[in-house]
Fold this sequence. Notes:
This protein has a single domain (2-84), classed as 2-Layer Sandwich (Gyrase A, domain 2), CATH 3.30.1360. It has 2 helices and 5 strands. It has helices spanning 12-26, 48-61; strands spanning 2-3, 29-33, 36-40, 68-72, 80-84. The chain has a 5-stranded mixed β-sheet, with helices on one face. A hairpin with a 2-residue loop joins strand 2 (29-33) and strand 3.
Amino acid sequence: MIDASELKGEGNEAIQALADFVKEKTSAEVTADGLKFTVKGEGAAVSKKYLRVIVKKFLHKRDLKEGFRVISDSKEENTLKVKERKTYEEE
């Protein structure tokens, strides 16, 4: 499962584009449910590590890498979360 709820500021088309990108790269079944989507498949094509790499590639491709990062959700075992980076301003 991939939680892209923090991408909502970029628009719903960014979340849908991420779902399509993951589906294209993994050839797995991707079910979108609002701001989260589930990837179902077998083998290394849908491993958590590979999905993390794919999401990072998507962020880089859309020039969102500076503002977002991919982390594992500590609450759920098989969930990746796209999290907004905290920016610190110098005084």
